[in-house]
Every structure is written in structure tokens, then in C-alpha cells.
Amino acid sequence: NTVSREPTEKGTDELLGVMDKVTIINSTLGKALGGAAGGYTTGPKPLIDLLRQRSRPYLFSNSLPPAVVGCASKALDLLMESNAIAQSMAAKTQRFRSKMTAAGFTISGKDHPICPVMLGDARLAAVMAEDMLNRGIYVIGFSYPVVPKGKARIRVQISAVHSDEDIDRCVEAFTEVGRKHGALP
């Protein structure tokens, strides 16, 4: 019997239902944990000991600044204490994705807070991202060689600190900028 319970946003392993089968986890301390730097590997002690001796990226990298470690540790504590942040992020992400889709944009992926607004044209992605910045909204245009040719996009990162008003303002700006540059009718 499978016990149905609400996801706790513990990543891909939970999403795929294989948490009990995974012994090694590699992850970053990047976007989901406040945009810090670095990453980590968890697993059996003998493996971690081996990686500390043989892993070239580990051997030739610097230690993380204490502030980064402290912030990442606190972020993980907050996420482990309650589902509130994860549920809020899911709702904010859904709000942005559904409003952008309703406005006529194509958003790649599913249910993830990194929301690629697919535009196809590199120049269009660049000028729209610049116009968004001029409106006080920081988004990044990506084009070849970072993404495949013809798959240019603007990446939007939904954050726990964004309000519904922030998200709505972003969608309104995208709609105005999209119309201005011919990305929307």
C-alpha cells in the first residue's frame, strides 16, 4: 500500500518517489537556498571520505565562506520545520505560470520555480529582457550557445519573497513588453 501524503518539496528524489532508494545526493546551494554558492554531496561515510581524497573539484576548490554556510544551514532548517515555504512557492509558481500562459506566452517545464519564457529568437529575448529591466524587473535572456539555436528564452526565477502583487506586476510588464516587440498579438 502506498500512503498518500503531501509532497514536502525535497527535490527530484521525492518527486519521482525514490527517496528510499537513493543513497547519494548531489545538490547546489544556489537558487533554491537564496542564491548562494557551492554545493554538497551526502552519502555513506566511506564514500564521502573517498571523495574528499580523490575528487579534483573538492581538492582544488576553496572552502565556502562561513556566511554562505550559515545562511544555507538556516534555509534548510526552515524548509525542514514546515511545508509552508514549499507550499507558498508552489502557489506563486503556479500563479506566474498560469497568468503568463493565459497572456499568450509559452512557459517551458512544469511546476518548477525557474520559468523559461520561450521566445525562440535571440534578439527578441535580449531586447525584452532589457525592457523588463527598465521596468524594474530583473530577468535574464538566454540564447545560443547557452541554449540550443532557436530556443532563446527569458528565464524568470520565482522567489519565496515575491508577493502576489510582484508576480502580477511582472506578468503585466511581460505582456506590455511582449506586445511592444511583437511576441504577443
UniProtKB/TrEMBL annotation:
Q: Which UniProt keywords apply?
A: Acyltransferase, Pyridoxal phosphate, Transferase
Which Gene3D superfamilies does the annotation name? Aspartate Aminotransferase, domain 1, Type I PLP-dependent aspartate aminotransferase-like (Major domain)
Which InterPro entries does the UniProt entry name for this protein?
Aminotrans_II_pyridoxalP_BS (IPR001917), Aminotransferase_I/II_large (IPR004839), AON_synthase_class-II (IPR050087), PyrdxlP-dep_Trfase (IPR015424), PyrdxlP-dep_Trfase_major (IPR015421), PyrdxlP-dep_Trfase_small (IPR015422)
An example GO CC term for this entry is: mitochondrion
Show where the Aminotransferase class I/classII large domain sits. Answer: 15-174
Cofactors named for this entry: pyridoxal 5'-phosphate
GO MF annotations, alphabetized: acyltransferase activity; pyridoxal phosphate binding
So what family is this one in?
Belongs to the class-II pyridoxal-phosphate-dependent aminotransferase family.
* Entry protein name: Aminotransferase class I/classII large domain-containing protein
